[in-house]
Amino acid sequence: MTARIERPLSPHMQVYRWTLTMALSIVHRATGIALYVGTLLLAWWLIAAASGSAAAYSNVQAFTGSIIGRLVVFGYTWALMHHMLSGVRHFVWDLGFGFKANEREALTWAALIGGIVLTVLIWIIAYAIGGIR
Questions:
Q1: How far is CA 97 from CA 29, 90, 114, in A?
Q2: Binding residue ranges for heme
Q3: GO terms for molecular function, please (predicted)?
Q4: Which residues are annotated as a binding site?
Q5: pLDDT tens digit string along 35-86?
Q6: CA pair distance 105, 15, nearest whole angstrom
Q7: Cys-Cys link to 69, which of 40, 62, 64, 104 (CB 3.0-4.6 A)?
Q8: Contact at 8 Å (CB) between 66 and 132?
Q9: Structural domain count of the chain
Q10: Residue 59 lies in a domain
Q11: Which residue range(s) make up the domain with 38?
Q12: What is the Cα gyration radius of the chain?
């Protein structure tokens, strides 16, 4: 007869103490998913522009010019910037650097703050040069 072997349970999210590094690693995955969805909006815009149809292009412009559309594009911009900087953070780790606690925290804060700052700068520049009306 086979006896049941008691194995330890694998720890899960309720067991771990949440850290900023852990949260931003999860956010990195979420922004990757958001970029897939946001790229559909970019493809919609490119297809409308390439079609030569003024009506198709004006539909895209009407959506992206609305409050909801601007929030979506702003969120897409943030997801892109955050995912890029978080990817750099993971690349630094892949190279074998940044594993000390203070280095890990610094890289995490840099990705978080850098993503926000870059997003705001991009939008300020876009408004300043007249790209957004």
A1: 21, 10, 19
A2: 83
A3: electron transfer activity; metal ion binding
A4: 83
A5: 999 999 999 999 999 999 999 999 999 999 999 999 999 999 999 999 999 9
A6: 21
A7: 64
A8: no
A9: 1
A10: yes
A11: 20-129
A12: 21
